[in-house]
Design brief:
The complex is a heterodimer of chains A (292) and B (150).
Chain A lengths: L10 E3 L6 H9 L4 E5 L10 H8 L3 E5 L13 H14 L4 E4 L2 E4 L14 E7 L5 H17 L4 E4 L14 H12 L2 E5 H11 L3 H6 L6 E7 L2 E2 L5 E2 L8 H14 L6 E4 L6 H17 L5
Parallel strand pairs in A: 1-12, 2-3, 4-7, 7-8, 8-9, 9-12
Antiparallel strand pairs in A: 5-6, 10-11
Helix pairs in contact in A: 1-2, 4-5, 8-9
Chain B lengths: L2 H16 L9 H22 L9 H11 L6 H11 L8 H11 L5 E3 L8 E5 L2 E5 L11 H5 L1
Antiparallel strand pairs in B: 1-2, 2-3
Helix pairs in contact in B: 2-3, 2-4, 4-5
Classes of the chains: A alpha/beta (292), B mainly alpha (150).
């Protein structure tokens, strides 16, 4: 029995305003899974095409990018309220976020996200993986879970930064996190490939030790490998064969009718690109012998 | 390590990375990759917020140099306005006028020119007030000016 509350929903694409009509059309032709970036929509004014797609059967997961759960500060209550309201408005069976921190600053600045002393990374930054950092992360995740009406899934990010004090590898850290909090795992295949490309390691070896019984759904995205051999997770390019092969392996490991696979494409995106990339995702999934 | 110690450690490391520096004790390669990621992401956010920024010559070099000295404290729109205000390189319209006007409002200069269609051409600061003076520059339109006043 899969733990994923969205198991069996097949292959989908992330909702973006520029491809809203295409995603609505895809939904009417069988696509049943999507995700919306939480910070880009309002719970009391969902985009009309998104609402129509939901009525046509699309399951939508609100995906947050600014909670910064791996930061030293507790998660901002206003951001949690927004995520909770979106979960209710979309009827989502879960919401998702990242194992990352996105800002840092003095304690008295927490209440004001635009406080002049708060450093905004503008990106998802990996925290050190130590038992102490894990304890703070676990505490933050529990605070988030208490504020949310649905389960929370947390994603492995594309990491380029290696902290000198890190004493646990990513698989150990994520396994400890899911066991301590009961949170679900959003497995990003492209991020896994990117992290190993930048910092070393074998993605399949790491994958085998990840908390795979907690996987809610799978992310896949495009990027490119530069002249130095470093893979950049851009969400602006087509998927590489390396990432698609890893996706096939992931689906093989997770088994049939398991967690759905979601394509993330943020830039240089139009209906033609998304349809073509979705077809490549389906082929990669089918190669694992899984019916979608 | 307490929450406060973790927060201070992350602030120290993130601050260095945003300045383009390798934090003490970090592997220079991984820190360098992260500096590149943070710079690219911030510049991409600015471009997404204001696509006309793409017209700026040597944008990556100019924006990244500015960003390293100015940690992000607001949204991507704030970044764009702050960047064009601080930057001294060549800008095309309407960014050049935005820079000129913004410098007056921030009291970097006493007066500036606003060459945007429909704007009064002179912007002057006197005490706490900023005045927009002179006859409005007629907007240009493919339909001709008569279409705009009919």
């Amino acid at each position: 029995m899969p733990r994923s509350p969205v198991a069996g929903l097949g292959v989908g694409a992330g909702w973006r305003p520029s491809i809203a009509d295409d995603l609505l059309d895809l939904t009417r032709h069988g696509m049943s899974f999507s995700e919306v970036v939480a910070e880009n929509v309002r719970a009391d004014a969902l985009p009309s095409q998104l609402v129509r797609a939901m009525r046509a059967g699309l399951t939508v997961v609100p995906h947050g990018v600014t909670l910064g759960l791996a930061g030293g500060a507790p998660p901002d209550p206003a951001r949690l309220d927004h995520l909770a309201a979106l979960a209710t408005a979309t009827g989502a069976p879960l919401v998702s976020e990242h194992v990352a921190f996105v800002r840092a600053g003095p304690a008295d600045a927490d209440a004001d996200a635009l406080h002049a002393d708060v450093l905004e990374a503008g990106h998802l930054v990996p925290a050190a993986r130590t038992p102490d950092a894990l304890a703070v992360l676990v505490d933050n995740v529990r605070l988030a879970q208490d504020a949310l009406p649905v389960p929370l899934a947390l994603e492995n990010i594309a990491a380029t930064l290696s902290w000198p004090e890190t004493s646990m590898d990513e698989a150990e850290f994520l396994t400890a996190l899911t066991e301590a909090t009961g949170c679900l795992f959003l497995l990003d295949v492209a991020n896994l490939h990117a992290t190993c490309s930048a910092l070393g390691g074998d993605p399949r070896d790491l994958l085998d030790r990840m908390p795979l019984d907690h996987v809610a759904y799978v992310h896949v995205a495009g990027g490119f490998t530069d002249a130095d051999g470093v893979y950049w997770d851009t969400h602006a390019h087509d998927m590489t064969d390396d990432v698609l092969h890893l996706l096939t392996h992931v689906v093989d490991v997770l088994g049939p009718a398991g967690p759905p696979v979601l394509l993330e494409r943020d830039t240089d995106v139009d209906g033609t690109v998304v349809r073509a990339e979705l077809e490549r995702v389906r082929l990669a999934v089918d190669r694992a012998g899984i019916r979608t | 390590m307490s929450r406060d110690e973790l927060r201070q450690r992350q602030e120290l490391v993130l601050g260095a990375l945003l300045r383009g520096e390798v934090p003490d004790g970090f592997d220079p390669r991984s820190a360098g990759l992260t500096v590149r990621v943070l710079r690219t992401k911030r510049r991409s956010d600015a471009l997404e917020a204001v696509p006309m920024l793409a017209s700026v010559v040597h944008l990556a070099e100019r924006f990244d140099r500015w960003a390293a000295a100015h940690p992000r404290t607001g949204c991507a729109h704030d970044d764009v306005v702050d960047f064009v205000t601080d930057d001294d390189g060549p800008l095309s319209e309407p960014l050049a006028s935005i820079r000129s006007v913004e410098r007056v409002y921030r009291r970097r200069t006493r007066w500036g020119r606003d060459r945007r269609p429909g704007a009064r051409p002179w912007v002057v600061a006197t005490g706490p007030r900023v005045w927009h003076l002179g006859p409005r520059v007629a907007p240009t339109s493919p339909l001709g000016t008569s279409a705009l006043v009919s």
